[in-house]
Automatic annotation (TrEMBL), chains A, B:
The lineage of its organism: Bacteria, Bacillati, Cyanobacteriota, Cyanophyceae, Nostocales. It comes from Scytonema millei VB511283. It comes from the Bacteria. Residues 56-509 form the Amine oxidase domain. GO terms for molecular function: oxidoreductase activity. SUPFAM superfamilies: FAD-linked reductases, C-terminal domain, FAD/NAD(P)-binding domain. This is Flavin monoamine oxidase family protein.
Length: 512, 512
């Protein structure tokens, strides 16, 4: 049973959430208990709630609270729901804060998720997909056929190294070195004789070592000529030099998929990530006012007052007992409000990830046809950083590849280019890895999250200091105003962060 | 470009296959050349070919050779095509060689692949799926949430160890030990100072080490209480003891997915493996006579003569210019024939894998609902050896789990039980890992390949001796009779072995 289920179930019935949370560390996790569905207890009656933002957090609050009788209204600045949970398809238009407009012209049936694109197996996101009937398919977050391609990495520079080659080789060398050190008793660790023997045995298998404990290559790294019928046992090339592999410096690439949020099994909704947003919209769409740009957030003696501009530019207002503010802090900090000074300081303290993506439609799936790559992510030290191959539409004719996905100063550098230039950069750098880019490119799209209206950044990025100093304040209501969203969680950048926050805030309000 | 494409293309135009194969080691593999489709050259005209067995190998021969004008007939002992490429569904009946009959009663829409169940990304199987329009989905061959569950493994015996926990911990300890040995200059290897620094840096990331190069656990092993919103940073448990991990002895479990044929990305056809057989049947079904049990294989002065019993038990005969014999050697060795003595000896020399599987339908996907397991394989030292969770129908109500998949003496032991007892064993042992088995089991099915009529074994298993001594002979025609199948390849046990063999044999015949 998940912590969150305990929290929310107990919190809903037993009072304050924080006390319950503290108690929870004492509760042991049962091995295979059936999870309880999240269910607020009816308590607050028909109080009114104004929710700012129809992203996943805001819609989840409306979904959960309206189920138990709260009167919910949602104001959404965009003309659509979902916020960063977003999929672009042909005909869609996107204009950034600099006024640069792109019209998406992918073929019908093709799409791209500019925001979140993966769902880890252990996230609450999956529970909501089940509850709301969103079909999922596996997103291949690692494919052993994907490349590590570096331009500044010693002797393997400019070489398309398959992940499986580098991985098999480095594990082989690590195992060889350690097994030999152990067998020579050069290890200064409290290992019994039996432990040492078992460790060497482990390393022999783990590394694919020969009887003398040398790593001399292995079919794990693949065949340069494949195995086949008749006289075709396959040819395995010699491993890369250890020095060359160390220069390649791919530890981060390899261990990327060790992370708890990046491990297989990962999912994506069939047909695009916005299937999740649409599923919520189906439940709470009747509460949403689109094109409503919040201009002021005010406290009243017994509730809240929100001013917003509607589609026609007219200023309107809503009042309610409570406000759940799902607006990213990067936007919220510039909205006039009655937040207390310490809350304003906390809101302004959180940095947002600088990140961008591009999408490239090709008229032939050459990565599959020519290179046996099905899903997965090629990693490069070029500005584009990553190339994602689609995990959908296998063996079909066309496909949309993620042409870059970068962060930080690289993203800033690329993001400040005009959209067409970003696409051109994706093509230029990507074509070093896939020369087929030049013959098969059809259409592109790119965005830089720092210039996406009403988002202004990728996701909340907490330094340890900000997490310690300001995060607790952000999690406390200010009067009757509760903040909500991925930024109010330890799962920043994940849709699950928004869901968890929405469940927590909903529980807090429902237990008042 | 793949070796097999070179082989078949060159062989088809340039004469004998073996000479070409030898020459091929001189040809360098282009980085991203477009693959040529396999295409026989029209040459033999309208010679007649009798094919024994409508498995994948036999049907592929008929498909490729009929395209270029050969007259093909296929005799198939079963009432269906596909051989071991097989899917069972409700209403299907299966009777083994001991006369034990099972009627499959899975719910409509649920199914089970008793034979091959996975397709590696680099196999020719995928090319045929593309050519014949067989939709594929990812089969999750590794899920970090799957368990390692051992009953005789020291202090972790009887504990459901998540793969990610064991993997994160052992990589951590390996990295710690090696990094320390290197930093103490205890490694006897030609590493420069710079190499050593880079190696330690690599291990720091690879193992998730702390600044002092100790492994003290990591979120990679998962959280005992998950990260969430508000005051929920997640709780990471201490790692398992290194000694305990070594006793667990899971090197084989972990490195299983390092193998070139087991790496991600892997596929399965949507709706069942027999979609591949059906796709070929659509192409060549008109050539197939079902229920035709071959009783004699004879040479004639200018061709071949085949005697068989038809459905009514009448002996019939077919003559042709050539015979392609796709019958497993385990069956073929007992069919009266005119094979030369050395060929008969070779046929009788090859052992077949002893292996079996069971399938269990549950009325609730508790592995998903309760345990966050989506696909993947739990490994155990019990007789059942493996539990496979379905990689299809995620988040739906019911599912079919593979209850055991074992080999060798364990398979022999389980396989000799009555089918119902094998299912009972799957339940009894599996319920130690998933107590939910007891409440949610509905229907089972099991088979033991040694008692599957017309297969009599899993797949060809070559010892090095047999491969050296007899395999070359099996690959040479005996008169006008050519053997074909997975057993004539280095991809034994894989459908690709049958496809590669069929392409090779077809090429040999077409270039005569």
């Amino acid at each position: 049973m998940r912590r969150r289920d305990f929290i929310t179930r107990l919190a809903a019935s037993a009072g304050t959430t924080y006390a319950v949370m503290q108690a929870l560390d004492l509760i042991e996790k049962p091995a295979t208990a059936q999870k309880s569905p999240f269910q607020l207890q009816r308590r607050g009656g028909s109080k009114s709630i104004i929710i700012l933002g129809a992203g996943l957090g805001g819609m989840t609050c409306a979904y959960e609270l309206s189920k138990v009788g709260y009167q919910c209204k949602i104001l959404e600045a965009r003309e659509r729901s979902g916020g960063r949970c977003w999929t672009v398809r042909t005909g869609d238009k996107f204009t950034d804060t600099l006024g640069q407009t792109q019209t998406i012209r992918f073929d019908r049936g093709l799409y791209f998720n500019p925001g979140p694109a993966r769902i880890p197996y252990h996230h609450v996101t999956i529970d909501y997909c089940k509850e709301l009937g969103v079909p999922l398919e596996v997103i291949v977050n690692l494919s052993r056929q994907q490349y590590i391609y570096r331009e500044n990495a010693g002797s393997l520079s400019g070489r398309k190294v398959h992940a499986r080659e580098a991985i098999a080789d480095i594990r082989g060398y690590i195992s060889e070195l350690l097994a030999k050190a152990i067998s020579k008793d050069a290890i200064d660790a409290p290992l019994t004789v039996e432990d040492k023997e078992k460790m060497i045995e482990f390393l022999r298998t783990y590394g694919g070592l020969n009887p003398d404990l040398f790593y001399k290559g292995s079919s794990r790294r693949g065949y340069s000529t494949y195995q086949g019928a008749g006289d075709a046992p396959g040819v395995v090339d010699d491993p890369y030099d250890l020095s060359a592999l160390l220069e390649l410096g791919f530890a981060g690439n390899e261990s990327f998929e060790f992370g708890f949020n990046q491990q297989m099994t990962m999912f994506e909704p069939v047909g695009g990530m916005d299937a999740i947003a649409k599923a919520f919209e189906k439940q709470v769409g009747r509460f949403i006012t689109y094109g409503a740009v919040v201009t002021e957030i005010r406290k009243t003696p017994d509730g809240v007052q929100i001013l917003y501009k509607d589609k026609s530019g007219n200023v309107k207002q809503e009042t309610a007992d409570y406000c759940i503010c799902n607006i990213p802090l990067s936007v919220l900090k510039d909205i006039p409000s009655d937040f207390a000074p310490d809350m304003k300081e906390a809101i302004a303290s959180v940095e947002y990830a600088v990140t961008g993506k591009s999408a490239l439609q090709f008229n032939r799936r050459f990565w599959e046809d020519d290179e046996d790559i099905f899903g997965g992510i090629t990693q490069t030290d070029q500005d584009i950083t990553q190339i994602w191959y689609p995990s959908t539409g296998y063996l079909s004719q066309k496909g949309v590849v993620l042409g870059y996905y970068n962060f930080g100063s690289t993203a800033e550098k690329v993001g400040t280019l005009a959209p067409a230039d970003r696409v051109a950069l994706s093509l230029e750098q990507g074509s070093k890895i896939h020369p087929q880019y030049n013959n098969h490119f059809e259409k592109g799209f790119s965005l830089f999250w720092s210039t996406v209206p009403y988002s202004i950044g990728g996701w909340a990025e907490y330094t340890t200091d900000v997490r310690t100093t300001y995060y607790p304040r952000l999690n406390q209501p200010d009067g009757n105003i509760y903040l909500c969203g991925e930024h109010l969680s330890y799962l920043t950048g994940w849709m699950a962060g928004a869901f968890e926050s929405a469940r927590l805030v909903s529980t807090q309000i429902a237990t008042l």
